[in-house]
Amino acid sequence: MAKSRVIPPSFSPERKSALASLLQDKPQTSQEVELRLIQPNPFQPRTVIDDVAIDQLAENIRKYGLLQNLVCRPDGVGRFTLIAGQRRLLALQKLGWQSATVTICDRVTNDDLRLVALIENLQRETLHPVDEVRALFEVVQQAGTQEAAAQLLNIPLGTIGYKTVCMNLGEDVLNRCLAIPQISLNTLHRLLQMPVEQRLEAIHSLASGGRTPPATAKTRKTVQKPFIWKNRTETQASFSLQLKFKKKDPTADEIFSAVKLVYEELAAQREGKPVILGPSRKPVKN
Q1: How far apart are CA 255 and CA 235, in angstroms?
Q2: Does one domain contain both 170 and 109?
C-alpha cells in the first residue's frame, strides 16, 4: 500500500493563505484514508483539467512523495468530501495509490466548501479564463462586495472589476469560449467590446485556430465610442476626470456607458494589462 513519505503540518494560522484563514478554527486531525472513499468537491469551479500537468504532478509525487496532504471533511460513516487537493487526488489515482494521509476538518459547511474551492483555485492554480471569471464572480457573491472579495483574496480591487466585467458576455458566449483552450482574458475583453451579433463569428474563428477575432479591426472603426477622456491626479486628495463627447446633449445611457468603459481601462492600466483603445478614446498621461 502506497503511503505518503512526508506528512506536512496541518493548515495553521501561520500559513498566509485564504485556505488557512478559513479553516484555522475548524477541528483538524490527520489519518490514512482510502482514496475510493473520497468524493470530489461538488463546488469545484475548474471544468478543464490539464492532463499533462496531472502527469507531471504524478511524476513528482512518485519521486518525492506526497508533500502536502489532501484536505477533506467527513461526510457520513466512512465517507469524505474533498475540500482541497483535486489535482493531487487525480495524480495519486493515476499512480495507483490506494490510500494517503488526509487532513480531516470538521464543521465545514457547504458554504465553506464552496468558498474554499473557489479561493484555492484562484490563488494556486491556472484556471481557464472563463472558469476564473466565473469563480471570481462567485467569490464576490459569497463575500458580499468586490471590496470584501479583494480583501479575502488579497488581490487589488481593480483586478476584481477587470475580470468579473466579462460576465456581461452572457452564459452562451462564455460557454463557447470555455471550449477554446487558447483563449485569453484579453480576448474576452475584445469580445465584450464587439457588437453582440459579431461575437459568435469571432468565437468560431478562434475555435478554428484563429489568433484574434477577425472583426476586431472593423469593430474599432464601426463601434467607436463618441467621446474622448482624460484624467489627472492634481494632489493626493484631488482627482479630475474629463469626458468630452462629439455630439451635443449625450443621453444618460451614453454617459453611463462611457464611464463604464473608462473604469475598465483604468482597471486594466492599474494591473498592467493590455488596453484596447478605439481611435476616439485617448487617455492623457499625467
Answers
A1: 26
A2: no
Distance CA 226, CA 34 (A): 63
The pLDDT tens digits for 47-106 are 667 788 899 999 999 999 998 899 999 987 789 999 888 889 999 999 999 999 999 988
Amino acid at 30: S
Which residues form the domain of 228? 224-286
Both 51 and 81 in one domain: the answer is yes
pLDDT (mean) for 164-170: 91
DSSP string, the chain: ----S--PPPP-TTS-SHHHHHHTTS-EEEEEEEGGGEEPPTT-------HHHHHHHHHHHHHH---S-EEEEE-STT-EEEEE-HHHHHHHHHHT--EEEEEEE-S--HHHHHHHHHHHHHHHS---HHHHHHHHHHHHHHHSSHHHHHHHHT--HHHHHHHHGGGGG-HHHHHHHHT-TT--HHHHHHHHHS-HHHHHHHHHHHHTT-SS-TTHHHHHHHT--SEEEEEEEEETTEEEEEEEESSSS--HHHHHHHHHHHHHHHHHHHTT------TT--PPP-
Distance CA 117, CA 107 (A): 16
Instruction: Give the up-direction half-sphere exposure of residue 232: CA atoms within 13 A in the CB hemisphere.
Output: 6
Query: Residue 21 pLDDT more than 50?
Result: yes
Average the pLDDT over 257-274 and give the result: 62
**Residue that the C-alpha cell 500500500 belongs to:** 1
C-alpha grid cell, residue 60: 513528482
* pLDDT of res. 249: 78
Q: What is the pTM of this model?
A: 0.55
Domains contained in the chain, number: 3
Give domain status of residue 48, yes or no.
Answer: yes
